[in-house]
Each structure stands twice: as C-alpha cells, then as structure tokens.
Amino acid sequence: MRLIFVRHGETPWNRTLQYQGQAPIPLNERGREQARRAGQRLARSGAVALYSSDLPRAWETAEIIGEYVHLHPIAMPDLREIDVGLWQGLTPTELYQRFPEHMREYDRDPAHTVRLGGESYAQLQARVLRAFTQIEAAHRTGETIIVVSHGGSIRALFCHIIGLDLVNFGKLWLDNGSLSEIVRGRSGWRLLRMNDVAHLEDLVVEGGE
Predict the structure, then answer these.
(1) Is residue 8 among the annotated active site residues?
(2) Could you tell me the residue ranges of all domains in the chain?
C-alpha cells in the first residue's frame, strides 16, 4: 500500500505568512495551478481513492486533482490543519508582539503548548493518526491512495512514521502543491519521498500554516 500526500495549493494567507488554521480561506490562482499540476503528475498513479480535509483550500485542491485521476474526494475532517485559535490571521511577528508570555511557553514546549483557544501539535498528531488508521484499514496491500491535507497535518503524521519527536516538527517543510509518499512494506511504513516539487519549479513560494 502506498499513500501519496498532497499539501493544498497556495492561498492569499500563505503569501502573507498569516496563520490559517481552520479558517475557510480559498486558493488563489497560483494555488489552483499548483493543484492542476499535481493532478497532471498523479494522472497515472493508479490511485483507487482520494481523501481530503474538508477545509476549502484542501477540498478545492482535491477536486481539481480528482478531475485528473477520475476520483471524487472523500471528506475526512480529521485531516484538517491544526486549530490555531487566536493565532488565526496573525503573522509570526504579530504573535510575539500580542502574546509574548504565551509565545515564550510555546518556544519552551512547541509540541504540547495549546494555541490560545485551539490545539497543540500533539493533539493534531493524535487526530491525524485517527484518520490515517481509518484509511489504512479501508484499503488492501498494493493499492495507491491520494490524501490532500495541510502542511501541519502531514508533518505531524510523518513525525510519527519516522519516529521523530514532535519538538523537531518545525524542521520539516512542505511547499504548497508538493507531493510526499509513504509505503507500507513487511517492516511497516516508510517515508519514500517528501516535498517533491518537480512539477512546480516556477510556482514554489514559501508560506505559513
């Protein structure tokens, strides 16, 4: 079994480095083109199912990809991005200005500090693992499945897959529209590729969660 993960296409808030969390921010035109190119790249993947976060930026990405792989997305709310609470709409600089004490706590323990009114990375990881377990149970050895989700959600899962402590979460990176892949063999799940952007050479722009 192999799971191909796609980070959603770019949004206006990715461009401005504002934390999106679970806000209903749509793709911009660059993001739609990233989704089209991901779909073209996956057209011959042989995927039997397409799962997606139900947040607009992921869902639109999945719908575009679905046109190329001839699959309809299946919504999985557990694949949503981390709930950032009061971080939503703010930039990193604004966070440290408005909530200095909270951000000091976050810097001390990034894995378990709960965003103000939101979730922690540990809570995010537990939620995404629930979705991963459901997908794994629904499919057979040898099948290929596409999963459209978010930078935070995919990285949280990959930390679990490779045994990386969540404190190192921020050292992993996924570009908008990138492809990553895990494969299950006799020894369990392995990370085969991460942040593959060969189809996006002129469309990669660093953005926030």
Answers:
(1) yes
(2) 2-178+196-200
Note the pLDDT tens digit of each residue in 16-47: 999 999 999 999 999 999 999 999 999 999 99
Would you call 150 a catalytic residue per the annotation?
Answer: yes
Banded pLDDT at 208 (limits 50, 70, 90): low
CATH architecture group of domain 2-178+196-200: 3-Layer(aba) Sandwich (3.40)
Q: Quick check: 91 pLDDT over 60? A: yes
DSSP per-residue letters across 52-84: E-SSHHHHHHHHHHHHHHT---EE-GGGSPP--
Nearest to 178 by CA among 199, 163, 155: 199
The catalytic position among 102, 150, 160, 199 is 150
CB 62 within 8 A of CB 208: no
Q: Quickly count: other Cβ atoms within 10 Å of residue 85's Cβ.
A: 15
From the candidates 8, 70, 72, 112, which is the catalytic residue? Answer: 8
